[in-house]
Amino acid sequence: MHTTLILGIGNNLLTDEGVGVHVVRYLEEHYADTRGVTFLDGGTLSFTLAEPIAEHDNLIVVDAARFGEPPGTLRCLEGDDMDRYLTGNRASVHEVGLMDLFDISRLSGTFPEHRALIGVEPESLGWGDYPSGCVARQIGPAAAMALALAARWRH
Fold first, then answer.
1. What domains sit in the chain, N to C, each tagged with a CATH number?
2. Residue 92 above 70 pLDDT?
3. Which pLDDT score is estimated for 89?
4. How far apart (Å, rounded) are the C-alpha atoms in residues 124 and 50?
5. Are the C-beta atoms of 124 and 132 separated by less than 8 Å?
6. Where are the alpha helices (DSSP H) in the chain?
7. Would you tell me how many other CB atoms lie within 10 Å of the CB of residue 14?
8. Is the pTM of this model over 0.85?
9. How far is the C-alpha of 117 from the C-alpha of 150, rounded, in Å?
10. Are 2 and 103 in contact (CB under 8 A)?
């Protein structure tokens, strides 16, 4: 059976910036017993995440992501589409950190077989411990999207 790490990243003190963390918390609260899936709050990223990434076959990253679309837009980028987005979009500290983590996993031979970025277009990145309304409404749908991907990749 293939295992999937669902990694929520972001700073949950900066409104929409923390959406990935809120999605992972939602998943832990409602789907803690999902077989073959690990939920991890990755915060604002660090190299210590290289080990949990290496321990799983697949990786789903959930984060606030700028697509140039209306706030609250939910998108999923898989595989090469994710890589192209991260390579061409270094506006966020997270995206730079993700590429570094990917480089580590490539060098160590543990690059995820399947990978995806589930992103929600932010509205606000100001101080606040909960996302704006349009982003908060995407927490459940983003969680469902992540679980559906993990289920598809499990087989």
1. 4-154 (3.40.50.1450)
2. no
3. 61
4. 29
5. yes
6. 19-31, 50-54, 79-88, 93-107, 133-136, 139-154
7. 18
8. yes
9. 12
10. no
